[in-house]
Fold this sequence. Notes:
The structure is a single chain. This protein is mostly helical. About 60% of the residues lie in helices and about 0% in strands. It contains ten helices and no strands.
Amino acid sequence: xxxxxxxxxxxxxxxxxxxxxxxxxxxxxxxxxxxxxxxxxxxxxxxxxxxxxxxxxxxxxxxxxxxxxxxxxxxxxxxxxxxxxxxxxxxxxxxxxxxxxxxxxxxxxxxxxxxxxxxxxxxxxxxxxxxxxxxxxxxxxxxxxxxxxxxxxxxxxxxxxxxxxxxxxxxxxxxxxxxxxxxxxxxxxxxxxxxxxxxxxxx
Length: 203
C-alpha cells in the first residue's frame, strides 16, 4: 500500500507515477485506480470520521472513491496531486449529512469540561488541547455557515492550502479567503480571542 505524503507534497507510487499518471493509466487498466484508493483512503476516512463520526465514515468514504472511479475520465491531468479532488467529492457527500454533523457538535457542546467524551463527538475536535474549551469550540463549529465550515475544516483538518481548498470546492481563491476569515473570526470570538485549536493557521 502506497504511503500517504504530507499535504501539498508530490505523491508518487512505488513505480514513480504521480496521481495524475496513475489515474490516466487507470482509464486503460481500471485496476490501477486501486493505487489511488490505497494511497488516500485512510486520510479521507479519518477526515470524514471527524466530521460525521464512524457510523457514517465507512459508507461516505467508500462512496467518495466510487464516485472518483466513475469520474476519473474527467480528472484534470494537469494536476499531479489528487488529494484536493478527493476531498472535494467527500465534502459534497458530507453536505448531505448536515444534520448528523451538527448533532455531533451540539452533543459535545453540552458536555461540561470535567466530563470526558469517548466517541465521534470527541474525535470531531481532536485538535483541542484545553479540555475546558472543547464545548465552546464545538458550539462555534455548529454555528458556522456550512460553506464556511467546509473551507475551515479542509484547511485545518485535511491540511489543504488555500489554492487546494479552492480547487477542491470549485470556488475562487478569493472566496476561500473570505470564508476562512469569517470562520476563524467566529471560532476566535467563541473562544474569547484564543485559538487553542490552531484551526487553519497555516494556509
